[in-house]
Amino acid sequence: MENCCLHPRQWRGRRMHRITADWSRSLGKSSLTVRAMDCVTSTAVLSLLLGCVGVFSLFKLLRCLRMKARLQDAVVVITGATSGLGRECAKVFHAVGAKLVLCGRNREALGQLAKELAASRASEVQTHTPRMVTFDLADTGATVAAAAEILQCFGHVDVLINNAGVSYRGTILDTPVDVDRRVMETNYFGPVALTKALLPSMVQRRRGHVVAISSVQGKISVPFRSAYAASKHATQAFCDCLRAELEQHGVAVTVLSPGYIRTNLSLNAIAADGSRYGVMDETTAQGRVPADVARDVLAAVAKKKEDVVLASLAPSLAIYLRTLAPALFFRLMASRARKEQKPKDS
Ligand SMILES: NC(=O)c1ccc[n+]([C@@H]2O[C@H](COP(=O)([O-])OP(=O)(O)OC[C@H]3O[C@@H](n4cnc5c(N)ncnc54)[C@H](OP(=O)(O)O)[C@@H]3O)[C@@H](O)[C@H]2O)c1
């Protein structure tokens, strides 16, 4: 009725106003609905996410407890326990209740470590007093005799961690073969002799685990480290065969290949003339903290991992490059050799 008294322009205006009001009402309603839906969805998604995180954390906790339980009371032999990574491995394995046999050349340093372990309160589980066996891995006879002593400590060995090692710095041109042999004796023949001497008892029990602390240089070779890289490549190859041959006997094999670790490794390295290198390399000084690497070793052993690279992105990529684009890898290494050689030549 009222519309009929209106001017057509006024009528059009009111109509437009009504339409706009209808729109905004319906739009308001739908945006409210959307907001409500958003809220419900985000709450549901949030609860789902929280649920997943909860289940995942519970799963991780259970796995961690199972893993620790597996190593509790296990007899773990650690070579090179006097220093660096071996010393830290002793601490983490002791804390989960492993029965340790600490090996090294220096009885005093082993005794000091055993005292520290006895005084540590970092464990919620029953810990055990470690035993000590001293021998030089470069002496095969002494190593085989030490294996018998190791077996007598607790009657058997569950885990053998071949950690002891020595590095090398020098050019191939300047290094007499005796120096290569010394590095191979400690890093390769010594651990092989110890492993072979302990294997029959593991096979007989159908239980055992051989762990090798290799290196990224067991997968790729870096210039001026020839003897070291060769010994670690040999370790990797030996362990890959060992894993295949012993699977049927219930013995597991783990190879860990760390990148640089902040230890005395470069200080203790053998130089081309056979002397102690005695320099803390910048790469080593900036390497990972040994305690962190030891925790990774513990996790890998508990999970019975087969092959683990513990390195940052660049060395990990270099390992792939060596396989996928060898020509490029060789060119990069040659350029690195030229750069590193220059200051020594000049
Ligand atoms: N540091 C790194 O950047 C790095 C990186 C990758 C892999 N790794 C590997 O990690 C392992 C541990 O080295 P680390 O870094 O902890 O160096 P470290 O501090 O120099 O410790 C080396 C250990 O090996 C022992 N050892 C050396 N020669 C031996 C021999 N002939 N007989 C028995 N024991 C011997 C040493 O005992 P003594 O006290 O008797 O000398 C010492 O306990 C080595 O296998 C090494 O190749 C190290």
Walk me through what this model shows.
With 346 residues, the protein is an alpha/beta fold. It folds into two domains: 73-311, Rossmann fold (3-Layer(aba) Sandwich); 314-346, no CATH class. The chain contains ten helices and nine strands. The strands form two sheets. It has a seven-stranded parallel beta sheet with strand order 3-2-1-4-6-7-9, with helices on both faces. Strands 5-8 form a two-stranded parallel ribbon. Helix 3 (107-119) links the parallel strand 2 (99-104) and strand 3 (131-134). The chain is globular and about 105 Å long. Bound molecules: NADP nicotinamide-adenine-dinucleotide phosphate (NAP). NADP nicotinamide-adenine-dinucleotide phosphate is lined by residues 80, 82-86, 104-106, 109, 136-138, 163-166, 186, 213, 215, 258, 260-261, 263-265, 268, 284, 287.
**Alpha plus pi helix count:** 10
Q: Roughly what is the average pLDDT, rounded to an integer? A: 90
Structural class: alpha/beta
Q: Catalogue the ligands.
A: NADP nicotinamide-adenine-dinucleotide phosphate
CATH superfamily grouping of the largest domain: NAD(P)-binding Rossmann-like Domain
Structural domains: how many: 2
Order of helices and strands: HEHEHEHEEHEHEEHHEHH
Distance between the termini: 107 Å
Number of strands: 9
Unreliable spans are 1-5
The top-level CATH class of the largest domain is Alpha Beta
Q: What best-fitting shape do the alpha-carbon axes yield?
A: globular
Integer-rounded radius of gyration:
31 Å
- Amount of beta strand: 5-15%
Query: Major sheet: order of its strands?
Result: 3-2-1-4-6-7-9
Fraction of residues in H or I helices = 55-70%
